Fold Peptide deformylase.
Amino acid sequence: MATRKILKIGDELLRKMSKPVTKFDEGLWELLDDMRETMYKNDGAGLAAVQVGVLKRAIVMDINNMYLELINPEILEQSGEQIGREGCLSVGGIQEFVKRPKKVTVRAQDRYGYQITITGEDFLARCICHETDHLNGILFVDKIEKDYKEE
Ligand code: NI
């Protein structure tokens, strides 16, 4: 395992569409293990492969000490809304208000290619949306609620 360099906003790669993972082999596992280490080393809650320069549809997350890997994630359902502060290891320094669904159901594959379905609320829903956005070249700064004031 190794930590990898995190690309920062302004890097063109962060704006590209990531490609579906088709091989669930040692190359993928090494990437995921490195992403996990890189996320923990930088105190992140989530990391997408593109953030370490790999255009593959793979994300890792750690929500309340639950580690998750989602390969080829696809949001099937979403409901409600929440507005909360969000940051990103590729942006750094700032946390801004972003509107997200309150609850999402995502279908994905695990590192072996088995299909999994996860329903998450609150912070988990927020992270799933944030990381899935990365795979489509979208950053949270594109979605800041500029006029929102905390109550
Ligand atoms: Ni991010």
The mean pLDDT is 96. The chain has one domain: 12-143.
